[in-house]
Amino acid sequence: MATYLYRLGRLCFRRRRTVLAVWLAVLIAIGGGAAAFGGKTTEEFKVPGTEAQATLDRIKDTFPAQGHGSAQVVFRSDAAGGIAAPENARAVGEAVARIAAVPGVADIPDPYATGALSPDGTVALGLVSFDSKLGDITDQQRDAVKAAADPARAAGVTVAFGGDAYNKMAQVDGGEVIGLIVAGLVLVVTLGSLVAAGLPLVTALVGVGIAMAGVFTVAGSFEVISTAPVLALMVGLAVGIDYALFIVSRHRRHLAEGLEPEEAAARANATAGSAVVFAGLTVVAALAGLAVAGVPFLTVMGLAASAAVVVAVLVAITLLPAVLGFAGRGIDRLPVWRRALRTTGRTTLGERWAGFVVRRPLAVLLAGLTALVALAVPAASLTLGLPGGGSQAKGTDARTAYDLVDHSFGPGFNAPLVVVVDAAGAAQPEQAVQGVAERLGALPGVQTLLPPQLDGPSRTALVPVIPKTGPDHADTRQLVTDIRDQRDALRAETGARIDVTGTTAANIDVSAKLSDALPPFVAVIVGIALVLLALAFRSILVPLKAVAGFLLSITASLGAVVAVYQWGWLDGLIDVPKVGPVVSFVPILLIGVLFGLAMDYELFLVSGMKEHHVHGMEPREAVVAGVKNGARVVTAAALIMVAVFGSFVFGHDPIVQPIGFALAVGVLVDAFVVRMALVPAAMALFGRAAWWFPKSLDKVVPRVDMEGEQLMARLEPAAGAAAADPGAKLPERV
Questions:
Q1: How many CB atoms lie within 10 A of CB 710?
Q2: What is the dihedral of CA 553, 555, 558, 560, to 10 degrees?
Q3: pLDDT digits (tens, 9 = 90+) for 549-583
Q4: Residue 135 forms beta bridges with which residues?
Q5: Which residues contact 215 (CB under 8 A, 6 or more apart)?
Q6: According to DSSP H, which parts of 615-704 are helical?
Q7: Which residue numbers delimit the SSD domain (predicted)?
Q8: CA distances from 644 to 24, 30, 184, 226, 512 (A)
Q9: C-alpha closest to that of 496 among 462, 526, 519
Q10: 3-class SS at 162?
């Protein structure tokens, strides 16, 4: 691999104008495609095969409104007479009539006629039904519905809109700009000049631009969940900057050793570029592996992020060498920290740290393990759920509506369940539906039942069930289970079959399916890691150690997520909209993304150790040398990722925020505790055994030459001849 990347780097360096023109053309073409054919994303977390979704699909022709978008409109007045005062009733009635006339609105019953008034008489609740799916409701329709309530506002009535149609998720708040600024500062400190620091930022932005445009272009033809482009942005920025940083750092080291810019770029592409390709493959494999869960929206998220990583790798090994060609020896122009330009002749902090670790490996190993286990303890209490109106930021319209309903009617009105009664096998359908309703009403978790809706021709009825608890409460999940447990008894008594659906039940089913998917997904990830790392390092212990470290990072990160988002720790520092269950796909997404990033650091650090060991160093000396050469860059890369991921934590999106937090903590723990402490300690304890590989496998496993050993064997004789004869040139092909 190193040889091919060496040739590619040299070619791109020489043909830099052509390479730059091609990438700019790709960016313009895909960007134009997104503008012309791109579609909008969806907020629906649908999972085919779950009971709630299968039931919804089955009744969509009989009860089409169940498959359409809906919203709550909450009217409140604390004035004398409350919401039932004549002037308020007139204003609310006019607002309801105007909402019903908005194009796209199918129905909104008069809350006074249906009795949807709070017991204290201050709040009226209207339920807006649209005539299209949630994903097809436009922002213009939402705005028109809001504007239609102006008569009520003019009368002094508080109006708030919530429900599925107004629970906007996965919104980018602009915090990523702060992440980019911090990343730029880290690059300046690490590389020492504005020119060198600017190259990774520029190439990463080109890659992210292409990836994001591609995702929105695909959204024009396929259903893309709104979280997918945000995840692609998050991961694409982080890996794009990091991959470029590794190659630029190696390039500058070769320049300091006296190589010409072209040769330095080619060798950096061969060695650091090989690690980039392998690291990218692990990230892509992990993210594509999200398909194992069998959840379509999660598969889309994984594929979108995978595409961003693929583009980042291609940009790093083609566009970056071309840009290095434009920079030439001027890569260190505009220096801001001259110490960073000296690459040899001094003992670095990384070298001193590595020396300490190899002298006391067992103590470092035990201390690191103790810290990680302590951080992981809260993970045992992990509870999963999906965000709703209660997860929105305080002060937003959706959160206001949610809180008003919760306070005035009870939390269960924000978590309605729909029990579908198929009475086709019952002798008397109406009596069967009534019998089902009586049995359901007697369950301990039910607050009330709304009037059943019976469709005569199909002999199918909908029984709305209002729980006593909210959508993310454990008792609500238990109620869904209790209702389903009544299925056999009700069929025996009434001849009718029941199923549970609705948004709350669907979210519960999604969370359960994602929880069940975790073990097989982890098994797939571990298998991928073992194969790729065995292929890269030709070792047994190194892959096993890497997987163990990865699992420690995951559990520690999940522990931190539970402590903050489920227990409410750091509430004064991080503005968590609502403490409660962790977003159900955060753990599996964290595993997929962090696996690839953790393998990045493993590859960059351990490949340096192996490179020195291959060239004759003793194992412990090789560990110190590998950390010395890689610590500065790995530290910078980790800080950049933490900055990029962490910048999403200070937004208010209930999905993006915990994802950013989990990834930021995961990278921080994995880079600084696992890879910079536990890995050197374990490698020092392993000694030569770290590089043992069975002869039977050695014969069949292909050699990828990630450290460039075979390449250097070909280049060094030519370099020696060039030193003896200054007129000689390095070979055009190797």
A1: 15
A2: -70
A3: 989 999 999 999 999 999 989 877 888 878 888 88
A4: none
A5: 224, 228, 229, 232, 304, 307
A6: 619-646, 656-669, 679-686, 695-700
A7: 194-326
A8: 24, 24, 11, 19, 30
A9: 462
A10: strand
C-alpha to C-alpha distance for 229 and 644, rounded to whole angstroms: 15
Buried b (16+ CB within 10 A) or exposed e, 379-413: beebebbbbbbbbbbeebbbbbbbbbbbebbbbbb
- DSSP single-letter state for residue 577: S
Counting Cα atoms < 13 Å in the Cβ hemisphere of 131 gives 8
- Starting at the edge strand found earlier in the chain, the sheet holding 158-162 runs 105-107, 123-130, 70-76, 158-162
pLDDT at 333 > cutoff 90: no
How far is the C-alpha of 204 from the C-alpha of 24, rounded, in Å? 13
Number of separate helices (H) and strands (E) present in the chain: 27, 11
Contact between 235 and 309 (Cβ < 8 Å): yes
Calculate the average pLDDT of the chain: 86
Q: Give strand pairing partners of 158.
A: 76
Given a cut of 80, whether residue 537 has pLDDT beyond it is yes
Chain-centre distance for alpha carbon 652: 15
Per residue in 118-155, pLDDT tens?
999 999 999 999 998 887 888 899 999 999 999 999 99
Report whether 497 contacts 414 (CB < 8 A). no
Question: Per DSSP, which regions of 481-615 are E strands?
Answer: 497-501, 582-583
Strand 460-467 and strand 453-455: the pairing is antiparallel
Stated as kind and residue range, the H or E segment containing 129 is: strand 123-130
Count of positions (residues) in the chain: 734
Q: Assess contact for 84 and 58: CB atoms under 8 A.
A: no
Closest CA to 641 of 170, 215, 245: 245
Tell me the per-residue pLDDT of 418-473, one tens digit each, with 9 for 90 and over: 999 999 888 888 999 999 999 999 999 999 999 899 988 899 999 999 999 999 88
**How many whole angstroms separate alpha carbon 158 and alpha carbon 219?**
37
Q: Rounded distance, CA 434 to CA 439, Å?
A: 9
Instruction: Please state the pTM of the whole predicted model.
Output: 0.84
Q: Which residues pair with 446 in a beta bridge?
A: 467
